[in-house]
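quick q for whoever's on today - can somebody do inverse folding on this one?? i tried earlier but teh output was garbage lol. tokens:
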């Protein structure tokens, strides 16, 4: 009975550490839940994507192809914040990607499929080579990104992705928490060279060193973020 209770408590603790990104905040205005962000499959369970080849890697939508009710306006060079429910409960890197909505589509109707995504942000740990790695987003209730000032004006999908590495020592152990916001950018210079465009799924492999990763022992000497390098203006 004690063993059963301990296992149940550990399972409950693991579930409580799971999280979603349900709201945006721009210029001090916070959206409603799933108002500017496509409602995700894990909106109740808070559970992760664990198969990087899954179609859920695009936006983890509850209903693929169904857009959010609204698209939020943001200035190029401005900041978009995603709220976290409840907080980033696991260690690992934070990434943001953007995809330009093609002609004939809107942010609400674009499915985000194909090689359309470019990375605008990634972070990594401090304390490499020690047993005290520190990940910048761990424990955060909000995560934010600056929209590059050099992007072209127009509508985009903005994809937030946090990769939890606490169980990533075996294939399929990494946990990805994903959401896509619908944004309309104004004031950009349009001079950005997006470089390598990637698709989701397709950008990552299960054996990429940033996906298959021994977090604890021996202490890791480096961390290589999966996917392309972030773009620069």
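ok took a stab at it. sequence:
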């Amino acid at each position: 009975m004690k063993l059963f209770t301990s296992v149940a408590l550990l399972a409950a603790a693991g579930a409580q550490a799971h999280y979603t990104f349900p709201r945006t905040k721009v210029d001090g205005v916070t959206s409603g839940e799933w108002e500017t962000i496509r409602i995700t499959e894990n909106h109740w369970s808070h559970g992760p994507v664990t198969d990087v080849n899954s179609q859920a890697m695009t936006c983890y939508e509850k209903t693929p192809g169904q857009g959010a009710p609204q698209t939020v306006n943001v200035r190029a060079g401005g900041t978009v914040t995603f709220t976290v429910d409840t907080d980033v409960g696991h260690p690992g890197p934070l990434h943001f990607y953007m995809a330009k909505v093609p002609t004939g589509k809107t942010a609400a109707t674009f499915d985000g499929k194909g090689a359309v995504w470019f990375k605008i942000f990634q972070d990594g740990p401090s304390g490499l080579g020690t047993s005290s790695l520190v990940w910048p987003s761990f424990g955060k209730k909000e995560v934010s990104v600056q929209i590059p000032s050099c992007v072209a004006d127009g509508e985009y999908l903005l994809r937030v992705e946090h990769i939890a590495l606490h169980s990533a020592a075996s294939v399929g152990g990494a946990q990805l928490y994903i959401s896509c916001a619908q944004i309309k950018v104004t004031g950009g210079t349009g001079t950005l060279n997006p470089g390598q465009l990637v698709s989701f799924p397709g950008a990552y492999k299960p054996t990429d060193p940033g996906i298959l990763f021994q977090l604890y022992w021996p202490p890791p000497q480096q961390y290589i973020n999966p996917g392309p390098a972030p773009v620069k203006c």
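fwiw The first helix runs from residue 2 to 16. also Residues 114 and 192 are 20 Å apart (CA to CA). so keep that in mind when u check it
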